[in-house]
Amino acid sequence: MPPDVAPAPDLSPAARDTPTAPTATAPDALTTEPDALYADPLLAACYDTFDGERDDLDHYETILEELGARTVIDVGCGTGALAVRLARRGLEVTGIDPARASLDVAHDKPYAEAASWVHGTAEELPALGADAAVMTGNVAQVFLTDEAWSATLRGIHRALRPGGHVVFESRRPQARAWEQWAAETAEQSWVVPGVGRVVGLPKGVRVELPLVTFSDEFTFESGEVVSSTSTLRFRDEAELRSSLLDAGFEVAAVRDAPDRPGREFVIIARKTS
Ligand SMILES: C[S@@+](CC[C@H](N)C(=O)[O-])C[C@H]1O[C@@H](n2cnc3c(N)ncnc32)[C@H](O)[C@@H]1O
């Protein structure tokens, strides 16, 4: 890790530790608070079980290998699923996320000690001289306003070395993922290690393109009920390309996600200026 970065500094306001759900409309604030799904300790403990096998991450490992990246920033690392895989392979990896509860889950994973963890947001990233930055799990869609998205890209740009790459995915609006989400109305249950049985109930989807908001209610064995509401922004390829150009990147490739053909853009962009 570069010498100017202390391990896991707290870059964000203390208020971020309080889970809040975003509203359905685009907030005015540059930075939104992380969703309860990531910031609530009970839900963060369930995240990896809810997500199941992470076949989606294989593609990122392959791309990073292709790029020859040795130092990598995992932006919006959440519970650190990719960061620990990279650390295990000997890459120098920094995971950054504003959701403290998710970072706590990451800290407990094997190989977590081989990575660096930053509690903060992408727009606060310092100059790290990294070879690459990744945003997996559609992190790019949590930035609802143009301002928040460009501040994120500027932060990533600052953190990369000249010629470094950002690699991320974003759902293709044309695939209309929200229609499938709206059709999923049945209860689902999981047994989460260390937590017990959790029952999830979808509470509805609201489509106000380019924003889509969905809510869920989770009931824990203890009887505790935790609700979450998330809003995502869907951007088309032209919008992604022009925002990258404005932030000082050139698009090197737009690929498909092999595990979700036709549904995602996987963008590889190079820092040019
Ligand atoms: C869908 S999760 C993906 C987590 C992880 N990348 C994965 O693949 O499992 C989205 C993540 O983005 C994080 N996030 C939200 N706002 C952010 C910001 N301004 N900067 C960095 N990460 C942010 C959330 O806290 C959450 O952990």
Describe this structure in words.
One of its GO terms (biological process) is methylation. Keywords: Methyltransferase, S-adenosyl-L-methionine, Transferase. Residues 72-164 form the Methyltransferase domain. InterPro entries: Methyltransf_25, SAM-dependent_MTases_sf. This protein has 273 residues and is α/β, with parallel strands linked by helices. The protein has two domains: 13-31 and 175-233, no CATH class; 50-173 and 235-271, Rossmann fold. It contains eight helices and eleven strands. The strands form two sheets. It has a seven-stranded mixed beta sheet with strand order 3-2-1-4-5-11-10, with helices on both faces. A four-stranded antiparallel beta sheet has the order 6-7-8-9. Helix 2 (41-51) packs across helix 5 (100-107). The radius of gyration is 18 Å and the shape is globular. Mean pLDDT is 89; it is low at 1-31. The structure holds S-adenosylmethionine.
